[in-house]
Amino acid sequence: MRAIIFTWLLLIGVGSCSADNTAASKLEEKLFRVYPRSTLQMHEPDRRVLTFCPDETCIEFRMADTGALEQDAFIYLYYFGDYYDLAKWRNDTGTQPLVSQLLTKQGLQSCAANVKKANSCVKKALRRRGLKVANTRYDEGRKTTVEIW
Predict the structure, then answer these.
(1) pLDDT value of position 107
(2) How many CB atoms within 10 Å of residue 57?
(3) Does position 61 have pLDDT exceeding 50, yes or no?
(4) What is the DSSP letter of 116?
(5) Residue 137: beta bridge partners?
(6) Contact of 36 with 107, CB cutoff 8 Å
(7) What share of the chain in percent tops pLDDT 90?
């Protein structure tokens, strides 16, 4: 009986994770229509750092929960990313519903519901979840990092 319950719980958990990953994968595909694949890199071996580098500057994402890092990075880029070409990604017809799906899966649907307060709500929620964000530049072979939050 325990084995059946454990298997059932495992299947439910895997199903919800794959839904998150599917939305994140689709957002990634849409992002790569605007930027080259090399702009987004997960750092090995611990997968706790993700960088988005469309030019000599990068946004570096850090999080202890490696399962939510990529999803939270996409949410951040959608709401706060200020690279010029991100507007093309945001305005793609399928991007907004996928971001809403990620918000819902992570219990942040209340942020999406209130358009006027969405940015501050998302920022507070991502910070509470432990997402750390920094701007990184590479000038003359030196790395300079300034934390955003």
Answers:
(1) 83
(2) 14
(3) yes
(4) G
(5) 57, 144
(6) no
(7) 25
